[in-house]
Amino acid sequence: MSFATTLHSTQLLLKDQILLLAPRVCSFPTRLGPVAYRRGSFCTVTLGDGIAFGARSRRIGSFRCFSALTPELKTTLDKVVTSNKVVLFMKGTKEFPQCGFSNTVVQILNSLNVPFETINILENEILRQGLKEYSNWPTFPQLYIEGEFFGGCDITVDSYKSGELQELLEKAMCS
């Protein structure tokens, strides 16, 4: 059985029983109706008599997923986070945050008068998925200080309230 379908909204291509779901590549053997689900991912796929594409699912079927974090992307991310003392991967920009959590972290960093770089993860889905693996953190924003992943919004807020963030950023700016 060989068929090809493209759904532009999810960048999905199914051809010769190989599912390419950008940025992840998933492949699985097909017989009569194996079902593939990816937790919190883009779609649900059922093969067999027909193809069914659905919404997010919490069940994971039997298939292999290869990392969205390619060696090239990892190298690029390493360079970005080590070449800047403070980097925030966020939804939107520091001038125009497109998420309340991202806005909160931007406001905290601005209140501390810390120079920081921002990367808009909404502009590149491969970057967005690869960062989740790079940091082993599923949500955004993601704050990096001196090349190390610090945390997301909740961790940043808590450490700001406790004074830990100010101390860490002072040390980072002095080094």
What tags apply to this protein structure?
175 residues, 12 strands, 4-stranded mixed sheet, single chain, 5 helices, alpha+beta
Structural overview:
By secondary structure, this protein is α+β, with helices and mostly antiparallel strands. The protein has 5 helices and 12 strands. It has a 5-stranded antiparallel β-sheet with strand order 1-2-3-4-8, with no helix packed on it. A 4-stranded mixed β-sheet has the order 10-9-11-12, with helices on both faces. β11 and β12 form a beta hairpin. α2 packs parallel to α4.
Give the CA-based shape: globular
CA radius of gyration is 20 Å
Count of DSSP helices? 5
Strand content: 15-25%
Name the average pLDDT.
Answer: 74
Helix content: 25-40%
Largest sheet, if any?
A: 5 strands, antiparallel
The sequence of SSEs as H and E is EEEEEEEEHEHEHEEHH
Structural class by sheet pairing and helices: alpha+beta
C-alpha termini separation? 61 Å
- The tally of strands reads 12
Strand order of the largest sheet: 1-2-3-4-8
Low-confidence stretches: 1-60
Topology:
Blueprint: E1 5-7, E2 12-15, E3 18-21, E4 24-27, E5 35-37, E6 44-46, E7 52-53, E8 64-66, H1 71-83, E9 86-90, H2 100-111, E10 117-120, H3 125-135, E11 142-145, E12 148-151, H4 153-162, H5 164-174
Parallel strand pairs: 9-10
Antiparallel strand pairs: 1-2, 2-3, 3-4, 4-8, 5-6, 6-7, 9-11, 11-12
Concise summary:
This protein is α+β, with helices and mostly antiparallel strands and about 180 residues long. The protein has 5 helices and 12 strands.
